[in-house]
Write a structure and sequence with these properties.
Helix 3 packs parallel to helix 5 (243-261), helix 5 (243-261) runs parallel beside helix 6 and helix 6 packs parallel to helix 7 (317-332). The strands form 7 sheets. Strands 1-22-21-24-19-18-17-2-20-23 form a 10-stranded mixed β-sheet, with helices on one face. It is 19% helix and 29% strand. The chain is of the alpha/beta class. The chain starts with a strand and ends in a 6-residue tail after the last strand. A hairpin with a 5-residue loop joins strand 25 (533-536) and strand 26 (542-546). It has 10 helices and 32 strands.
């Protein structure tokens, strides 16, 4: 990653007088018309826990060794002593984990029971699916849980873990009954208390966990039954009649066995939804999902789909959006409309027969731009979470961290983009509409997509934009941020679509004319805070000043600072403009005021939108306040 100094940008129009917005974000007279307009609706939340957009999958084979001449080298992130490789550590530490799905490609290849306990007692097992390569899995389930527990920096919560259980027999687990028992045993090992209750009978897996140094349960909530059992080379090819019903019947056995151990777990079922397909394939996808919803809907938490995309019209982000909408519509019209939709995995498409150069291309700059486009699209939909495919194996086809031929490691643009977005994808995704021209390169009916995110307490807001056009630059105007001030921004670019290196350029703010310039194939990230309202007097002194309201949205008391003159009045209004509460103003000068979310009669107000209005010397100013629910009772 390269960081450039900020470009020199002159301000064409100064903001004077009443300051209610960052210059250029609201009401600016632009020197030239923008080619794209982004409008943020700060009153509408599209995704309530948008940090889940940055979920990942992690490969359980990360500790295996692969041949290299007469010796072996690590295929993953860890050496034979389960130590994070020196070349990987500074790169992997930049990825903030919010939710992690495990064991990825190891789901149908590794018996988890042989990944826990003392390493000398573990049996060798196949790790590449064909039985020709076997070794002891040194970095096992407990090691993975220890890694994620301490991965994030101080002050950032550990990620939520989801577990994928195998539905397939293998060389080491030869019968279907044992595969089902293996899944139930895993639930017991992860979640059962170490109190001798032994809910599954047989081996007391909670006691085993305690003996392995982990007496407290891991309390893993989400369990995915299978990986891609519907694939064309899998036992339940979704295009073959009867396979959907057969898999649902099998999944029922897993659900029964696993919930007998812990009835509180949440089960997700794989969906074969994809960005493109012929009429027969699309009908088979719908039939699969409808069968799962009909036979299992009341017992499952969600459907988990995988999307692998590229820059074409057929398999691009717009096609992915249509696939998500179709799945959401099937759920909504089913008898189980509360079932959630998870994007269990997503990444740029890389065909299985791809050369190393094409494998790299799926992680390089153009793929990172397309990936960001997809994430911003997903932020506008009611998805439960979104997981990137996949970390843990630099030698694998998908390798956001790549092992180079000289033994060094590179953080690929797909990973750099995630790291750059991590601090700016905040708690909730807001509604955003974007108008932009069709991409000149002919790959989509738009060029710019945007997303906006806000912290739960209302103290931070970010806007992210991607120009997916590989040919034409765009100039973007942002509307709807009348009470926010952009404090920093960074532009992400690269030297070409197959670049390994991302160029990060800080912006000098405010930008000229209120327009943000976006070169072809670029990503722009802006961070903002609520703006301070200042009304200067005739001599330049501060006549009236009103701070942002904190927290906003609120479930309890809100507070704000005001600098007022004699006779100032502060009221709370409802959306009809009626005054429901008048706040006492102690005098002139700067004072801190509080509203306890009650009306003048002392009754708690209903959740909704309210307006704080300051009236002074014949003029009025307002702040918008969102009340979620009261916690005063």
């Amino acid at each position: 990653m390269t960081t450039r100094p900020a470009p020199s940008l002159s301000l064409l129009r100064s903001c004077t007088g009443l300051i209610i917005a960052v210059c250029g974000l609201s009401g600016s007279v632009h020197a030239q018309p923008p080619s794209a307009v982004v409008t943020v609706d700060v009153g509408t939340v599209r995704m309530a826990d948008s940090k889940r957009l940055l979920g990942t999958s992690f490969d359980g084979r990360t500790g295996v060794q692969m041949p290299s001449g007469p010796s072996t080298v690590p295929a993953g992130y860890f050496d034979v002593n389960n130590q994070l490789l020196a070349g990987v550590a500074p790169l992997w530490s930049q990825i903030r984990l919010t939710t992690v799905r495990y064991p990825g490609n190891g789901t149908d290849q590794i018996d988890w029971r042989e990944t826990v306990g003392p390493v000398p007692q573990r049996s060798s097992q196949p790790y590449n699916g064909n039985g020709t390569a076997t070794q002891v899995i040194r970095f096992g389930f407990d090691d993975f849980m220890a890694m994620v527990a301490t991965h994030n920096p101080p002050g950032v919560a550990p990620p939520e873990v989801q577990v994928m259980v195998s539905t397939r027999t293998s060389l080491t687990v030869p019968t279907q009954a044992e595969v089902i028992q293996m899944a139930a045993d895993w639930v017991e090992y992860a979640n059962a208390p170490n109190d001798s209750t032994n809910p599954g009978g047989g081996i007391d897996w909670a006691a085993q966990r305690a003996a392995n140094g982990h007496p407290a349960p891991y309390d893993i909530r989400i369990w995915n039954v299978g990986n891609e059992p519907w694939g064309p080379s899998q036992p339940f090819d979704f295009q073959i009649a009867g396979n959907a019903a057969a898999f649902a019947a099998l999944a029922q056995q897993f659900i029964t066995a696993m919930k007998a151990i812990d009835p509180t777990i949440l089960i997700t079922i794989p969906s074969p939804a994809r960005p493109a397909g012929n009429a027969s394939q699309l009908a088979a996808i719908a039939a699969w999902d409808n069968t799962m919803l009909a036979q299992l809907g009341s017992q499952i938490y969600g459907l988990s789909m995988h999307l692998f995309y590229d820059e074409t019209l057929l398999r691009g982000v717009s096609a992915c959006s249509s696939a998500l909408d179709a799945s959401l519509a099937r759920i909504a019209s089913s008898g189980s409309p509360t079932v959630r939709l998870l994007l269990g995995d997503h990444a740029h498409s890389i065909p299985n027969t791809s050369s190393p150069a094409l494998q790299d291309f799926g992680m390089q700059w153009l793929a990172a731009v397309t990936q960001t486009d997809l994430l911003l699209m997903a932020a506008g939909k009611p998805l439960e979470r979104v997981n990137f495919w996949i970390y843990g194996m630099p030698a694998a086809t998908w390798h956001p961290i790549r092992r180079n031929t000289d033994g060094t490691y590179t953080m690929m643009p797909a990973a750099v983009a995630y790291a750059q977005m991590a601090g700016s994808i905040l708690d909730e995704a807001l509604a955003v509409t974007t108008t932009s021209p069709a991409s000149v390169d002919g790959t989509a009916g738009y060029s710019v997509r945007a997303g906006a995110f806000r912290s739960a307490d209302g103290t931070r807001l970010s806007v992210m934009m991607v120009n997916r056009d590989t040919v034409a630059a765009q100039t973007v105007a942002i509307q709807g941020l009348t009470l926010y001030q952009v404090t920093s921004g960074r532009l992400l670019t690269a030297t070409g679509p197959a670049a390994d290196n991302v160029i990060v350029t800080p912006l000098t703010l405010p930008v000229a004319g209120g327009l943000y310039a976006m070169p072809p194939s670029s990503i722009l990230i802006l961070d903002a805070i609520p703006a301070l309202l200042v009304v200067p007097g005739p001599g330049g002194e501060t006549r009236v000043q009103l701070s942002p309201v904190f927290p906003n949205p609120s479930s309890g008391e809100v507070r704000f600072d005001a600098t007022v003159s004699v006779g100032a009045v502060v009221e709370i209004l409802d959306t009809a403009g009626r005054s429901i509460r008048r706040l006492a103003v102690p005098g002139t000068g700067t004072t801190r005021l509080h509203w306890d979310l009650t009306n003048d009669a002392g009754q708690e107000v209903a959740p909704g939108i309210y307006f704080l209005r300051l009236a002074s010397e014949g003029e009025r100013w307002t702040r918008r306040v969102v009340v979620l629910h009261s916690t005063l009772r």
